[in-house]
Amino acid sequence: MIDWNTAVQAGTRLVRPGPQVSNAEAREVVAELRDLSAVAHGHVREFTGMASDPDPAPATVVDRPGWIRANVDGFRVVLEPLMERMQERRGSGILSGGPGGVMVQAVGSRVTGLQVGGLLAYMASRVLGQYELFLPPDPSGRAPTGRLTLVAPNIVHVERDLEVDPHDFRLWVCLHEETHRAQFTGVPWLREYVQDQMTEFLLASDLDPGAMLDRIRDAADVVADAIRGGEGNLIDAIQSPEQRAILDRLTAVMTLAEGHGDYVMDAVGPEVVPTVQQIRARFQGRRDGGSRLDRTIRRLLGLDLKMKQYAEGAAFVRAVVGKVGMDGFNAVWRSPETLPTHAEIAAPDRWIERVLGPRAIEPAPEPTDVPDGS
């Protein structure tokens, strides 16, 4: 299906080099990012009240090729169920393709590997950090199930581009990423829920050759439309109807997670990041900008939808915390049933009423006049 070695080779060959720094500067950046991730962890744990790991492993700091290799490892873990299913179909003859089928599959997997490598090369110059949910299994069972990763060249590039205080910006980024670590280590069921939804999404892929050809044609139409300035994206184009329903659930939980991260990084920020308002304003301008080609690629890959997730999710968290406090908001992490739906993210009162009850959003009674005894 995908030649992963080809993907890594293509991605690391195509990715653009990071900003120029001396060896001493690079070591200083790596050391500071590790230290600041620990500082951010303490702030996030205290502010959110989430029962996250009190003593997590230090953040892993990587360069752009390192990010590509790590994500290929993650893709392998996520895509394993789909690849096993396709292998079963090949074994039964459904996808064998007759004589020469093995050669066609080998060539196709290399082509797909090149495509994945190109996508990763593009993303590797833009991602600042992430909490990696899907790591190769550790035979000893001692390694953590997730890993916080920061991409040092990209952080340095953005802080220079925005002309903001490096220390403040690095801590601000760490606050966001440490919030993701708190979510997935402090909520026992969340990682498995996301993985199950992703597995269902992949297994809902329509493997019928005719249907796949239709998806490819739809994708080609989307590319042409995007070049003309249209709003379509490849993610929508290649989905089956069943996948759309699953993706709706996945999008809701990731909108919550990303919005929660954005809310925390800004809410904690004024106390520990003096220039947070300047950073937010300039960073938001960077999210919204870019060349026409860059905007087209972002739209095709669905990255604009991710930017929308940050805004919608943060607005939901702000609204809920403003009405019921952080403890009330944290009811969202009780179970999959208490997660907000897409509709509830746009209408936070509906989530509050469903999960916390209608009295939770009733206005406080007006104070009554007390006789002064005169």
From TrEMBL:
One Pfam family matching this protein: Zincin_2
InterPro entries, A to Z: CHP03883_F420-assoc, Zinicin_2, Zinicin_2_N
UniProt superkingdom: Bacteria
Protein name: Coenzyme F420 biosynthesis-associated protein
Species of provenance: Actinomadura rubteroloni
